[in-house]
Design brief:
The complex is a heterodimer. The two termini of chain A are 17 Å apart. Chain A has a single domain, classed as MetI-like (MetI-like fold, Orthogonal Bundle). By secondary structure, chain A is mainly alpha-helical. Helices cover 75% and strands 0% of the residues of chain A. Chain B is an alpha/beta fold. Chain B contains 20 helices and 22 strands. In chain B, helix 4 crosses helix 5, helix 4 packs parallel to helix 7 and helix 16 packs parallel to helix 17. The longest helix of chain B is centred in the N-terminal third of the chain and has 18 residues. Chain B is globular and about 75 Å long. Chain B starts with a strand and ends with a helix. About 1% of the residues of chain B have low confidence. The chains are: A mainly alpha, B alpha/beta.
Chain lengths: 280, 593
């Protein structure tokens, strides 16, 4: 017993290192998006034509863009609009995918077949192309973006959850619960959700990363968050459009934050996965 | 005659959590050509580690002490290249699960031939001829037609024969069989046992037969070595051992093996100590009824008497084993609880395509009545439909025919009434681990039926869980644990507590003890018997083990290929079986030569 405890403590930093780093990085990204805008109250839309395209200085810690706007203020407000769209979109995709998967996995065979064929169609469509198609059709309000991004990335999770539910539903503990009167919703929420918790949580983190990336890609193409709002993707695009003048202060910060957000999501997911593999 | 295999003071330590944990100590034995030695022990005794150690197949980081003499050559420290030359050629192994040990993508002829060609060279055609001879030798019917079959095309018993043929490919001097009959029903297990016994005689080959099943080796083994907590506690000639077991553990283990018509099984209190927490003196002392102060302190001496040796301070006198068969109780009369009339179940057969699905019958025309408070045993081989019967009774699957609980037809009930009725029919499954959600705490698992039923406060449920745990002999503290942190026997008790929670009228026991060690199974069957009497429970006890069923059942139904071929009072069925098949089952379950 003693030995068990010491070896567990001994392994702890290694096992939880990735998770801690991922959560720390996620905290940093969230801080930039939701708290920092209030701590740095400069107006992101105020134009200072005399100061256009200046490198970082005491007055503008991250310099200014070609219109003379404060780049740090833009970065922070862009972070807010990025996360305010990407996070709800990821949550929507997660809930849709999980509910769809459970419905197919626990429902009657005909429902499973119907839902799975529909899913095949959804998976066969290239996500970004569909996204661009619809983004070009509807006005880019934040709500529309959330719906679009949310409804594009659920099929992968739906398939995983469905397969897991199918594999588990014949197991004895599920049969025992059914014998005691459990409904399908009860089986999904109480029994299966715990069994598939690693799959769910890890996918939730990956979906968050995906949503941020897709939104950045859309914004980069001008189909994301609309002016005067900025997002990390659109900031990166406007920085790159001036690449000839090498305004690194406009390119690096949004690029690094997109990268940090993706890394945070991936590391948190990976960390959770490893820490779950430890306890059986 | 010099022995084929000789172990001298074999010890094994395995690397666990950064430390070397000794799992096996001072194992010494010798097997002569043509001899079959059985290594018997419960799970955790170290018997499989011994088998792997002889083949030098232990996991990385394992430490070996002592000598392993294979035809006089010490291979305990032999190099990997020397071992490769020996494995398969001079010593071969048959593993527990042939489906996992055979390559699913290659034909059996290719796999058997490969072993031979690897060691002996030789061409494809010669290897094929060799494979044919071997398949014939291990008793595969029509071997020529089956050479190009794949492992999945064989049944469980036949697959194990293929494994044995593969092991025999290079005419090894030593064959190690590690639980080769696990997962087979008793008649098939017996056939594999008889095959190995015949082969060792014909080929003058030494066989080390590793098993937990004493009843299985009783007829064929020449020598017995009983392992407990990593040590040999008793060893010697099989005949003398079975006539007079002298170590208290051997005696208790034999008493725990169910015999036909036995009224109550022996059970051993306590559980096997973990390798990290083995007592200093005799390792069995804490569970031994004969233990005295010295047993906890010093290592017991080897006590020799006749043809057996017992490592014990106070061995049992060499008196015959206590008589086991009790006088049959007079048949009891039960008021009807569940009536089954013309029950049939069909499963979709493979091969159907789209709409044209064929239905294969799994059960046909079963009619019987279960009395209140009765235990009805259902026996049959794998595939006889006995588990299907259990599931149909539990209303888990669709069926044709009539079933009525206390006079009310279950099929014609309203959905709500049917749900309520199903709560009164509760299952206990074979594999206790599989039947408990690994991510739910024990307390939550047992409380689940109460929660689904509704009407009880959280505190009332907790109190009921505690009472249920006490009924199955578990402490309340276990409620906070996860199933991964309890033993197999405890897990099965938890499953029983859950089945009792909704206050059932009928409990379907589907092979409740067969995934457990014999002593744990004995404890469990006794517990079920006591609970049944105390709560007036009706049991449907499904098993392939006629002996185990006969210790509990009032009546026994024999199923074969989906039909009920015999139904009679237990004592009458054993004394005067009417059907040929029942007679064969009884012969397979009967002890001794």
């Amino acid at each position: 017993m003693r030995q068990g405890v010491t070896s567990w403590l001994g392994r702890r930093p290694g096992r939880h290192g990735t998770l801690a780093a991922g959560l720390g990085l996620a905290g940093l990204v969230l801080f930039c998006g939701f708290i920092a805008p209030f701590l740095y109250p400069a107006d992101p839309y105020a134009i200072h034509p005399a100061q256009a395209l200046r490198p970082p200085s005491r007055l503008f810690p991250l310099g200014t863009d070609e219109l003379g706007r404060d780049a740090l203020a833009l970065l922070l407000s862009g972070g807010f609009s990025t996360l305010a769209v990407a996070l709800p979109a990821a949550a929507l995709a997660f809930l849709t995918g999980a509910a769809y998967g459970f419905a197919a996995g626990l429902g009657p065979l005909w429902l499973d077949k119907a839902l799975m064929r529909l899913l095949d169609v959804a998976l066969a469509l290239p996500g970004l192309i569909v996204l661009l198609f619809f983004a070009a059709l509807v006005p880019q309000t934040n709500l529309n973006l959330i719906l679009l991004l949310g409804l594009i990335s659920w099929p992968g999770l739906a398939r995983l959850v469905r397969n897991e539910a199918r594999a588990q539903r014949g197991r004895d503990f599920i049969l025992a619960a059914e014998q005691a009167g459990a409904s399908r919703a009860y089986l999904a929420l109480v029994h299966l959700s715990r069994i598939v918790a690693p799959v769910l949580v890890v996918n939730a983190t990956f979906m968050t990363g995906d949503a941020i990336l897709s939104l950045s890609a859309l914004s980069f193409l001008g189909l994301g968050v609309q002016p005067p709002q900025e997002s990390w993707g659109s900031l990166l695009e406007s920085g790159l459009s001036l690449a000839a003048l090498n305004p690194w202060w406009l390119i690096l910060p949004p690029g690094l934050l997109i990268f940090a957000a993706l890394l945070a999501a991936a590391m948190t997911g990976q960390g959770l996965l490893t820490s779950w593999q430890g306890d059986a | 005659m010099s022995p084929v295999l000789e172990l001298k003071g074999l010890g094994v330590s395995l690397r666990r959590g950064g430390r070397d944990v000794p799992v096996l100590d001072r194992i010494s034995l010798a097997i002569a050509p043509g001899e079959m030695a059985a290594l018997v022990g419960e799970s955790g005794s170290g018997k499989s580690v011994t088998a792997l150690a002889v083949m030098r197949l232990l996991p990385e980081g394992a430490l070996l002490a002592g000598q392993i003499l294979l035809e006089g050559e010490d291979i305990a420290q032999a190099s990997e290249s020397r071992l490769r030359a020996l494995r398969g050629k001079r010593a071969a192994m048959v593993f527990q699960n042939p489906l996992a040990a055979l390559n699913p993508t290659r034909t059996v002829a290719a796999q058997i031939g490969e072993v031979w060609r690897m060691h002996e060279g030789g061409g494809r055609r010669a290897a094929r001829a060799r494979a044919l001879d071997l398949l014939a030798e291990v008793g595969i019917p029509d071997p020529a037609a089956r050479l190009d079959d794949y492992p999945h095309q064989f049944s469980g018993g036949m697959r194990q024969r293929v494994m044995i043929a593969m092991a025999l490919a290079c005419a090894p001097r030593l064959l190690i069989a590690d639980e080769p009959t696990a997962g087979l029903d008793p008649p098939r297990a017996r056939q594999i046992m008889e095959l190995l016994a015949r082969l060792r005689r014909e080929r003058d080959m030494a066989v080390l037969f590793v098993t937990h099943d004493l009843a299985l080796v009783e007829r064929e083994a020449d020598a017995i070595h009983v392992l407990y907590a990593g040590e040999m506690v008793e060893w010697g000639a099989a005949r003398a051992f079975f006539a007079h077991p002298r170590h208290p553990y051997s005696e208790a283990l034999l008493g725990a093996v169910p015999h036909l018509g036995q009224a109550r099984l022996r059970s051993i209190p306590g559980s096997l100590p973990e390798p990290e927490a083995r007592p200093p003196g005799c390792r069995f002392a804490p569970r031994c009824a004969r233990a005295e102060e010295i047993c906890g302190r010093a290592r017991p001496p080897a006590d020799v008497a006749g043809n057996t040796v017992a490592a014990c301070f106070f061995p049992l006198p060499a008196a015959a084993r206590a008589g086991l068969a009790a006088a049959p109780a007079p048949p009891r009369v039960f008021p009807p609880l569940l009536e089954i009339k013309g029950l049939s179940v069909r499963y979709p057969a493979p091969g159907g395509w789209l709409g044209r699905r064929r239905l294969a019958p799994a059960l046909e025309g079963i009619s019987l009545t279960l009395g209140r408070g009765e235990c009805l045993g259902v026996v049959g081989e794998s595939g006889s439909g006995k588990s299907t019967l259990g599931r149909a009774v539990l209303q888990m699957i669709g069926y044709e025919g009539e079933m009525s609980l206390e006079g009310e037809s279950l099929a014609r009930m309203t959905p709500a009434a049917r749900r309520a009725a199903r709560r009164r029919l509760q299952p206990v499954f074979q594999d206790p681990r599989e039947s408990l959600n690994p991510r739910m705490r024990v307390g939550e698992i047992i409380a689940e039926p109460l929660r689904l039923q509704g009407g009880l406060s959280r505190a009332a449920r907790a109190a009921r869980v505690e009472a249920l745990l006490a009924q199955v002999g578990l402490s309340a503290a276990i409620a906070a644990r996860y199933p991964g942190a309890v033993s197999g026997g405890q897990a099965q008790r938890i499953a029983i507590a859950r089945a009792l929670a909704p206050g059932p009228a009928l409990v379907v026991l589907d092979e409740p003890g067969s995934a457990l060690d014999v002593s744990t199974q004995a404890m469990l069957l006794n517990l079920l018997k006591d609970l049944g009497r105390r709560h007036g429970l009706t049991y449907l006890f499904i098993s392939h083990d006629l002996a185990a069923v006969s210790t509990m059942a009032d009546r026994i139904a024999v199923l074969r290929a989906g039909r009920m071929i015999e139904l009679a009072e237990t004592a009458a069925l054993i004394a005067q079986p009417r059907h040929e098949y029942t007679r064969a089952l009884i012969a397979a379950a009967a002890p001794g030569p």
